[in-house]
Amino acid sequence: MRYSLGSLLLNAFTGQRHWNPAWRSPDPKPHYDVLIVGGGGHGLATAHYLAKHHQVGRIAVLEKGYVGSGNVGRNTTLIRSNYLLPGNTAFYELSLKLWEGLEQDINFNAMVSQRGIINLCHSDGQRDAYMRRGNAMHLNGVDAEWLDAEAVRALLPQFNYDNARFPIKGGLMQRRGGTVRHDAVAWGYARAASQRGVDIIQHCEVTGLKIENGMVKGVETTRGPIEAGKVALAGAGHSSQLAAMAELRLPIESHVLQAFVSEAIKPVIDHVVTFGAGHFYVSQSDKGGLVFGGDIDGYNSYAQRGNLPVVEDVMESAMALWPALGRLRVLRSWGGVMDMSMDGSPIIDHTPIENLYLNAGWCYGGFKATPGSGYCFAHLIAKDEAHPTAQQLRLDRFQTGALIDEKGVGAQPNLH
Ligand SMILES: Cc1cc2nc3c(=O)[nH]c(=O)nc-3n(C[C@H](O)[C@H](O)[C@H](O)COP(=O)(O)OP(=O)(O)OC[C@H]3O[C@@H](n4cnc5c(N)ncnc54)[C@H](O)[C@@H]3O)c2cc1C
To answer: Average pLDDT, whole number, for the chain?
Structure first.
């Protein structure tokens, strides 16, 4: 069923009795041509683009929980393509372009809101770094705008300008950046993929990989063994565990990242804003809650909850930038498991095992990459060659030293 004004009216006048489940829930079949492990944003987007653009036969997505239970439904919904380095710029711009046409493509309201993202700067050195990033974006055909201190104050009068510990010296703005409703992305891709014949199999955990003579042949699951021509790993925070099933050790550590939502208030902030002197970023949801977060907790964990020191750190940064927030109550908080790569950039590549593919290392920035990642991963799986925009997102860059260290902080996952 297509979602349309007609279908809304039909259901409005017939007691909402004609809606179908958004996607089918079939039992696993004994064999698939492509098995995607992980029904998060990246796995589902991959399934959608594989089914839409490539002829690869039968496809299934295996998800150990339910669709949206991972990071795709836990992130703070920010999208942008304001990257500096060649390996990232074209890839994230492809992703942003796909976001811009996503709702028409999958016939699902994902609430794509290009409200603009502003990275605030608080020192001369930081201003130089942001201007350099803006220039790199222009050279790559990406929109970027420099805002001086007065321009920032005109757009964001609610911040502390007169007695700030970290005075605001300006900001780099990308107007095409913004937010997207995160779980709608998972539901929308699941529905679109299912309509194209992909089997979305929930509550089916992959517990082992069947590998013979260096080639993957299928998977062991909690719902029995399934054979496959190709297996694509898209387990995000659990990538290391999945790779270990093939005796591969990834340059990835899993860390927890927290998010916070305040009680709902009237509109107070029109854009997404990042604080440059501490770990804090904020936007406002359509329900009125302020959505904000900061840094990872900084220790290895598979827990979907965090600890108090980071809560305090985020709240302190919030107060330094926007003291009026002290009157607001936090409504809820949660955590997600991040697949932190050693250079802070992702991996979309073959593995050394034949027909086993890897999509991982998204750190805390993988939501914005969801469409681009799915598009490029589908291309890799179908054609056995990297998509032109993802050619540098290779697994062997950690051996060759061709790192994509966007922040320039070295091989420390807790710094990216
Ligand atoms: C608090 C928070 C805030 C964030 N904010 C942003 C942001 O503002 N912008 C941004 O770009 N990114 C953000 N991120 C990062 C982003 O959410 C992730 O990088 C991205 O969602 C990861 O890809 P995914 O959607 O495929 O992951 P997931 O949704 O986690 O999908 C992976 C799936 O694999 C499944 N799985 C794992 N192991 C197995 C197994 N053995 N068998 C079967 N299934 C398995 C999991 O259950 C899970 O559903 C944030 C993350 C968090 C936690």
So the answer is: 96
Q: What's this model's pTM, rounded to 2 decimal places?
A: 0.97
What is the C-alpha to C-alpha distance for residues 77 and 62, in angstroms, rounded to an integer? Answer: 24
Query: How far away, in angstroms, is 68 Cα from ligand 1 center?
Result: 9
Judge if 158 and 266 occupy the same domain.
yes
Domain total of the chain:
2
Our mutation pick for probing the ligand 1 site, out of 75, 254, 280, counting the most ligand atoms within 8 A of Cβ, is 75
Q: How confident is the model at residue 411 (pLDDT cuts 50, 70, 90)?
A: confident
Does residue 282 line the site of ligand 1, with CB under 6 A? Answer: no
Residue 412 has pLDDT above 90, yes or no: no
Together in a domain, 258 and 173: yes
Read off the tokens for 312: 């305090």
- How many angstroms separate the alpha carbon of residue 367 from the centre of ligand 1? 8
User: Going along 98-184, which residue ranges are E strands?
Assistant: 117-121, 145-148, 170-174, 178-179
DSSP label at 140? T
Distance (Å) from CA 346 to ligand 1 centroid? 13
Ligand 1 centroid–CA 216 distance in Å is 24
Cβ neighbours for 409, distance < 8 A, ≥ 6 positions apart: 344, 415, 416
Ligand 1 pocket, residue 259 CB under 6 Å: yes
CATH code assigned at 141: 3.30.9.10
pLDDT at 416 over 80: no
